[in-house]
Amino acid sequence: MDQMLLERPAPEANGSIYADVFRVLVATSDLSRRTVPPGTQGALSAAIDALRRERAPAEVRRCVEAMAVAIHRLHWALLDPSPEGAIEAAARREEIANLRTEWLETTSPKHEA
Questions:
Q1: What's the confidence (pLDDT) of residue 6?
Q2: Model-wide pTM > 0.70
Q3: Which of 33, 109, 20 is nearest to 67 (CA)?
């Protein structure tokens, strides 16, 4: 997974942007990891830039920007070996899980009954 994040080209098609964001969310939700996968922030930055360029809805951009902040905070929490760091990392992972749910709700096709 780590290499995949590093080697992916900049997102170009809207669908690949959404898939790249979801991959980042899955990678950072892995509770067994003690690090944020390499290339994660870069992948999110590229996605944010692409979403701005494509004029994606504001709620979609806000969600990805919130993910970038949460993942940055997770990274710093994982660097803290103290029990407080572990508590903070757990809170950040929960925040990322909530953002993943929000991402799926925000980006899933809306079907009218």
A1: 40
A2: yes
A3: 20
